Every structure is written in C-alpha cells, then in structure tokens.
C-alpha cells in the first residue's frame, strides 16, 4: 500500500497497455486544465534526462534480462519522481503522469518477476489522487499501433520467446500485462475507461471524474 500525500498539488495518472488511447487523452486533459487556469506538469514514462538515454541504447541491443529491464525503468521513475513529480506537487500543480509505478508492476510481473519484489521497489511513491485504467483488447491495440509505426521488440514481449511472430507475441505478452492491470485495478480502485469508446466520449468522462479531485486547488 503506497502512502497518501498531503501536498497542495494533485497527481492524476493514466495506465493501460500500449495503444489504449491513454496518451492522447492525457494530452487533451492537459490542454483542458491549462485553459481552466491550472498549473500543469505532464510527466511521461521513460523520459528522465539521466536514465532514459541509457535505456534506449540497451533496448537497441536487445540483450536486457527481465530484471535489468525492471531496474533501469525503476531508476528512470525514481529520477522523475524526485526531480519532477514531487517538486510540482509541492508547488501546487496538477501532475498528469502518462504511466506510473503500476506500469512497472504489470509489465514486469508479465515477465515473471515476483510482484512482492516489484511493489517493494516502489514503496516510496505516493498514491495518486486518481488513476485512470484504459482497458482495450490487445489485438485492437496492435492494429492501432501498426497503423503508424512498427511494433517494438520489448513492447511485443519478443524477449520472452512466446512466439517468433511479432503480432502473436504482442497479443500473448500484452494479454498477460492486461491481466496484471486488472488485478491492480481492483487493489487500487482505478477508474475504468473503455478504450473502445470515442475520443470525445472518453474525454468527457475523464473531465467529469477529474473536476472533483481538483477541488481546493488554487
């Protein structure tokens, strides 16, 4: 159980497998909140200036073990949490996080790492004020992604050797990730978003859920 926080800002998180629509929606939410006059920080997974370049280089070599993959992303999160997320919350801003600790737990559990070990690595991280869980079928998310780019090696879980076919491997791996998300959603009270709904319908639902959370800011 991660601790609740008493900072003047708010932490709002989007989670879900790749291609679920969460990144597009959190950017729309960011624009909405800024228009309403809130100070907003959008924080993105695997984006720290110190660790992210190391992760990108390691992924290109395709030699990361599940534990190495996990620890590198944990280091990236720790940096962003300390240097970006917490300072913004202390300053009274709304932090929108495109993925949070639940991404690490879901993905790494799907790679066979014990959940207790993963959870213990993120005990320091506060509980978000609101977490949206975008649920979408892995086959649908694959088709969405491949309309604009190729599936990445680790994204498809090719390192797990479920299949030599990228599409089949992606669906098998992301199905395991999705199953872990379902457990986390029940344990942590995520706000469910149907990834099959229209963009406008989804954004309207998110704004309705966010507004009460922001009461008292400013």
Automatic annotation (TrEMBL):
GO terms for molecular function: ATP binding; dTMP kinase activity. Residues 14-204 form the Thymidylate kinase-like domain. It catalyses: dTMP + ATP = dTDP + ADP. GO terms for cellular component: cytoplasm. GO terms for biological process: dTDP biosynthetic process; dTTP biosynthetic process; dUDP biosynthetic process. The keyword Transit peptide does not apply. Belongs to the thymidylate kinase family. HAMAP family: Thymidylate_kinase. This is Thymidylate kinase. It comes from Leptospirillum ferrooxidans (strain C2-3). The lineage of its organism: Bacteria, Pseudomonadati, Nitrospirota, Nitrospiria, Nitrospirales. The gene is tmk.
């Amino acid at each position: 159980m991660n601790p609740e926080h008493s900072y003047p800002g708010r932490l709002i998180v989007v989670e879900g497998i790749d291609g679920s629509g969460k990144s597009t929606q959190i950017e729309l939410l960011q624009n909405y909140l800024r228009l309403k006059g809130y100070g907003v920080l959008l924080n993105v997974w695997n984006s720290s200036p110190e660790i992210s370049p190391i992760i990108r280089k390691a992924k290109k070599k395709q030699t990361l073990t599940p534990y190495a993959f996990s620890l590198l992303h944990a280091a990236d999160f720790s940096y962003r949490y300390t240097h970006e997320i917490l300072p913004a919350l202390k300053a009274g801003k709304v932090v929108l996080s495109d993925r949070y600790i639940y991404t690490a737990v879901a993905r790494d559990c799907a790679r066979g790492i014990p959940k207790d070990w993963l959870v213990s690595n993120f005990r320091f991280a506060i509980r978000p004020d609101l977490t949206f869980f975008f649920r979408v079928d892995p086959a649908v998310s694959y088709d969405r992604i491949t309309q604009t780019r190729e599936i990445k090696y680790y994204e498809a879980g090719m390192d797990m050797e479920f299949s030599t076919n990228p599409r089949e491997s992606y669906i098998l791996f992301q199905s395991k990730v999705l199953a872990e998300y379902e457990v986390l959603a029940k344990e942590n009270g995520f706000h469910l978003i149907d990834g099959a709904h229209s963009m406008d319908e989804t954004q309207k639902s998110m704004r309705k859920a966010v507004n009460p959370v922001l009461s008292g800011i400013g």
